[in-house]
């Protein structure tokens, strides 16, 4: 069961409205389930959430190779032809993903994402799933 802060749509819209160049925002659980979205269609958000689950797992595996790392992924940024992809940990088991155009202000995106993480992080918990059940 994912515990979340009511309807997050307005917070996601706020991030998109305040950062020119943001195309799509998805909040997801570690196992790739979409919790909330802004921009794009629901199917695209589901595909992005599923891809992010694999990416955060890969980032955590890479982190184990860094001495003194706790193995937790905090932020992944990928430059793609035409834009950028950002994935930031929100809380244990949940993540914030943002797709932007290539002209976005990276500092503004990072600051806006950190602000959102602070706003929603304490209210979002996605415990790991065991045998298809939360907890």
UniProtKB/TrEMBL annotation:
<dbReference type="InterPro" id="IPR004942">
    <property type="entry name" value="Roadblock/LAMTOR2_dom"/>
</dbReference>
<feature type="domain" description="Roadblock/LAMTOR2">
    <location>
        <begin position="9"/>
        <end position="100"/>
    </location>
</feature>
<dbReference type="Pfam" id="PF03259">
    <property type="entry name" value="Robl_LC7"/>
</dbReference>
<dbReference type="InterPro" id="IPR053141">
    <property type="entry name" value="Mycobact_SerProt_Inhib_Rv3364c"/>
</dbReference>
<protein>
    <submittedName>
        <fullName>Roadblock/LC7 domain-containing protein</fullName>
    </submittedName>
</protein>
């Amino acid at each position: 069961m994912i515990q979340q802060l009511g309807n997050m749509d307005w917070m996601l819209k706020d991030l998109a409205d305040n950062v020119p160049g943001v195309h799509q925002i998805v909040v997801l659980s570690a196992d790739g389930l979409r919790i909330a979205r802004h921009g794009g269609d629901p199917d695209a958000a589901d595909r992005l959430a599923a891809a992010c689950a694999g990416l955060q797992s890969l980032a955590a595996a890479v982190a184990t190779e860094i001495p003194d790392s706790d193995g937790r992924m905090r932020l992944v940024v990928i430059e793609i032809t035409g834009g950028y992809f950002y994935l930031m940990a929100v809380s244990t088991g949940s993540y914030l993903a943002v797709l932007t155009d290539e002209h976005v202000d990276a500092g503004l995106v990072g600051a806006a994402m950190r602000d959102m993480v602070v706003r929603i992080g304490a209210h979002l918990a996605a415990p790991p799933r065991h045998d298809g059940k939360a907890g």
